[in-house]
Every structure is written in structure tokens, then in C-alpha cells.
Amino acid sequence: MQETVDLIEAEIPRLRRYARYLAREADRADDLVQECLMRAIAKVDSWTPGTNLRAWLFVILRNCHINEVRRGQRTVLMGETSTDYDVVPTPASQEAHISLLEVRDAYLNLSEEHREVLLLVAIEGLQYEEAAAILEIPVGTIRSRLSRARQALRDALDDGRDMPGASVSRGRETRHG
Amino acid sequence: MADHEILADHKIQDYIDGRLDDRDRAAVAAYLLAHPGAASKVETLRRQNEALRGIGQEILDEPVPARLREVLQRQTEVAVSGRGRLRASGFLEAAAAILLFCIGGALGWFMHDRLTPRLGLEDLIASNAADVYTFYGGDHDYPVDFPPDRTAELVSWINRSFDREISPPDLATLSYEYRGGQLLPVSGASIGFFQFEGPEGARLAVVFWPGDQPPTKVDRIGRQENVAARYWLGNGFSFAVMSDASNPDLESAADAVFAYYDGVLGPSP
Fold first, then answer.
1. In the prediction, which pLDDT does A17 show?
2. CB–CB of B55 and A107 under 8 A?
3. Chain A environment of B9 (Cβ under 8 Å)
4. Closest CA to A86 of A68, A107, A117
5. Which CATH number is B69-265 given?
6. Statement: residue A99 has pLDDT above 50
7. Highest mean pLDDT range out of B1-15, B112-126, B179-193, B203-217?
8. How many CA atoms within 13 Å lie on the side-chain side of A96?
């Protein structure tokens, strides 16, 4: 069991990042992670070694969040708000052709749905199947949503380029599916 | 047309996300070699992906808060010792059973209708009896997440979870000392837990959770094997005070606990 616990511990930073997306406030995000860890240990036997532990933990984390929202906490359901997402980037590396800052701005202007699918697949590196299990949607929907999210991101970046000096402001209108 | 097909958006995406088999990957790669325009598009996407991976990096770089490591460690200890205890004695099973018994009994009494489908709360607890086993320890050295010196932190967490500030009651007049507490996960909800120790190591636990129970007090006492519980539906919250069945202080402790929370939560209609 200790071996699995060590693996879980190594995932805490990733859990905190996803929780920050879900809960937005750092303290509440860590509460979510704490609850997720307790649940994970309580049902650690249900994790199959060899499968993606991160994906398994993300399912638990997201369920904790949804349960909390359903309990009528002050958190709003994802997708109902455009409140800022306080995950901020590290400084852009000099040689990157697409600066992290640009991408971050464009990313933050995407719809909640697009941000979450990009977070799971592009940022956390989960397989489509794993993301589908977390979001409880079909794999085909992951693929198409991801494709639209990337297109929206590209459009936003292009818009930013078209308007030198202007911050990327497009995004909400690209929200579909 | 084959070229167009091969670079359909989903194909590019599968290529970038490493979802193509060797043959398809090679075909895309060959196509890109021959079509610099398409290759540039793919490269842009790839860089976009790389840049995305940096988002939130500072969270990964933050030191993990001590409380998260601690909770993981403690829960592991509890789980490991809980498994041993479960095998060794029926105490935990009895503890969970009595909680279920009390909840079921109280709700049944209140509803005056045994045929009414069980309320979600009961199922909630029942489906997570294992969690209760795990967390409702019988040992004197039960490792709680929040020892007394971290009560403020616990109460703040309870407040965030339940939107009510619920502190451990002061049972000093009964010679019971607060030994710590925590929030226990059950599906769809959390249960708060305060532990007390009295004369000669006697134990008491206050278990509470929010719910949509009717705002009427239901005061019941149940006993099963060596565990007793007194249960009370407060104003938007339920409380159970539990102890060994032989503990003569249960009644008076429950009186004190319920009176305290009645004051904190406001009188029930």
C-alpha cells in the first residue's frame, strides 16, 4: 500500500493544479485536494496498478468538486461564470516562438469547456479515453471538443497578432461545443 | 482526395497527440515532408501545445502544503490500522452499524411511515460504511487529522465545507477533554467528527453532518453490541454522540452537546 501512497503523493502538485481550475480559490482548491486524498486512500484498492493513477485521482477530485457544488456551496458551476482563472504562467522562455504569455491570455479567454479539455489532454497529457472518463462524455466528444478548443486558441492567437499591442480579447464568442 | 483526407483536422490532432499507429504516423510524416505549408501548420499546433503545458507550472513548482502531506500520511495510517482492527474486532463494524441504526430509526420515527423510501442520507451513510469504519476508530491513539492545537484550522475548514461554523463543544464540566477532529468523506457529503477522552480513557465522539432534514428535533438513543449512540436532528444539521455502551456519561454528554449546538445553530421551529 505504501508504494501506491507514494505514487499518490507525487501527484499532489497535479491535483492542486486541476483543483485550482475547478475551485479557483487556492484555499478551496487545497480543501478539494485534501478531500480527494482522503477518499483516494479510503478506496485505494479500487485503483488498478498499471492504469493511470493521475486519471483515477482526477475522477475522484472532480467528483468531490461536483458534490460540493451540488451541496449548494458558494462555488458556481463551471461554465456559468467568466471569473478569472488564477493559474498564471511561468515567464515565457526566450526561444519560444509562441510566447507562453500569449497562449495563456488566449487560453484564459476560451470557454470553460475548452479550457478543461485542453487542461486534461494537452496540459496534463491524459489519453482521450481517460479524459472522457473524467468528464463523463464519449471519446468522440473529447476529440471534437479538443479540436474546436485548439481552433479557438489558434484563432485567438491570430487575432492577437493582427492587432499589435492589443491583448487577446476574443474567446467567449468562440464558445461552442 | 487522399492528401486532403490525410490531413483532416482530426488526423493532425491524433498525430500531435500521439494517437496514430506506426503506419499512419509514417504516412502523415511523409506527407508533411512533401508539404511545407501543412508542416508549418502542424508545427504551430505543436508549439501551441508546448506553450500550453507551461500554464499553471507555478502551481506545480509550489511546495506542497504540509496539511496535504499530513492528511495523506494520517489517512494511510488509519486505513492500515483500520484494516487490522476490522479483522481483529467487531468494534468498528458495530460503530458504523449503530450509526446506521440510529439514523434509520430516527428518520423512520419522524416519517411515521416505514414504507416511505429511505431518505438519501441513510443510503449515503450505508454506501460508505467502509469510510466510517476506517475513520471512526476505536483506539485511544486514534490519529485524527486535526489535534486540539489545530482546532482553528479545522473549524475554518468545516466552515468552508458546511457554510456554518461548528466548533467542538466544551465538555470540561463532564471531565471530557477534546482530543481532535476531522472531516470524513462520504459520497456526496462530508461528516464532521470530534473526539473526546474522559476519565479512565473513556471515549466519546460527536459526529455531525448537514442535510435537508425536517427542522424538527428527534432525540433517540440506540444501542448495539458495545456501542451506544444518541442521535439528534438539529436545525439543518444532524448530530450523533457515540460512546461505548458501558459509558455512563453518554446521556449527560449528549444533553450538553445538543444544548450547545441548539444554541449555536438557533432553535428549531
1. 94
2. yes
3. 147, 151
4. A107
5. 3.30.200.100
6. yes
7. B179-193
8. 20
The answer to whether the predicted template modeling score (pTM) of the entire model surpasses 0.80 is no
Q: Which of B9, B48, B78, B156 to mutate against chain A (most A CBs within 10 Å)?
A: B48
Domains of chain B by residue range: 2-61, 69-265
| B52, B58, B76 member nearest A107 (Cβ) | B52
Q: Which chain A residue has its CA at the smallest distance from B154's CA?
A: A31
For the segment A14-72, what is each residue's pLDDT rounded down to a tens digit?
A: 999 999 998 888 888 998 999 899 889 888 888 998 899 999 999 999 998 888 787 65
Q: Which fold has domain A100-174?
A: Arc Repressor Mutant, subunit A (1.10.10)
The distance of B7 to chain A (nearest Cα, Å) reads: 13
Put simply, the answer to whether B56 touches A64 (Cβ < 8 Å) is: no
CB contact under 8 A, B52 and A103: yes
Tell me the shortest Cα–Cα distance from A33 to chain B, in angstroms: 8
Return residues 32-61 of A near B (CB < 8 Å): 33-35, 37-39, 41-44
Which of A41, A93, A153 has the most B C-beta neighbours within 10 Å, making it the best mutation to test the interface with B? A41
Domain covering A2-70, topology:
Rna Polymerase Sigma Factor; Chain: A (1.10.1740)
Contacts of A21 in chain B (CB under 8 A): 56
**In which residue ranges of chain A is CATH 1.10.10.10 found?**
100-174
How far apart CA B202 and CA B247 sit, in angstroms, is 7
What share of residues in chain B are helix, strand, coil (percent, to 5)?
A: 55, 20, 30
**CATH code 1.10.1740.10 region(s) in chain A:** 2-70
Under a CB-based contact definition with an 8 Å cutoff, are residues B133 and B92 in contact?
yes
Please tell me the least confidently modeled range out of A153-162, B178-187, B258-267: B178-187
Long-range pairs for A92-100 at CB < 8 Å and ≥24 separation? A92/B51, A92/B54, A96/B47, A96/B50, A96/B51, A97/B47, A98/A157, A98/B44, A98/B47, A98/B48, A98/B50, A98/B51, A99/B51, A100/B51, A100/B54, A100/B55
B15, B46, B55: best to mutate for the A interface, most A CBs within 10 A: B55
